[in-house]
């Protein structure tokens, strides 16, 4: 398990990961438009939050891991002091237009029903949740035994999990969409079709109804 500082340095030094992160940020900000507040759910070390704040968006951050949160407080010190990044405790005490959950935050949940019910009280009607999740159809994972072992579960149930230190679960988009209903509807999946086979991450956009 990486410390917050190690995680932060690994991500900032990875051109591939930063390219994915920047695509996610760009999509989130294009959807949000000129104004509105953001909840960065599972904010990690504050990389996304700092970027949102730099573009003028007030950003609430929720991060349960102590090591990540401590590094976030250092990395976003100026933004926190200036009120453009706002730390949340155990409760999601905010009302926002957008919730972002980048880099597989939602893959650490075995079921998303309770989470989306909670987020329904946070996201204003017409707002959205944008999540970057591990893509269960990514063919780059076919070289691993755990992927082949779980292929039947993916086909039958649209989901699977395997034993790791962090307890990662993988889901087909439809499974997450059913958990999000009736509060949110799945509006967009990126990529789609054959593009899913070549992408480690998929972006799921849920609209508050």
UniProtKB/TrEMBL annotation:
GO term, biological process aspect, one: methylation
Which terms in the Gene Ontology molecular function aspect does this entry carry? methyltransferase activity
Which keywords annotate this record?
Methyltransferase, Transferase
Presence of keyword Lipid biosynthesis = no
- InterPro entries from the UniProt entry: SAM-dependent_MTases_sf (IPR029063)
Q: Does the keyword Transferase apply?
A: yes
* Protein name (database record): Methyltransferase domain-containing protein
Species name for this entry?
Dyella marensis
Q: What is the lineage of its organism?
A: Bacteria, Pseudomonadati, Pseudomonadota, Gammaproteobacteria, Lysobacterales
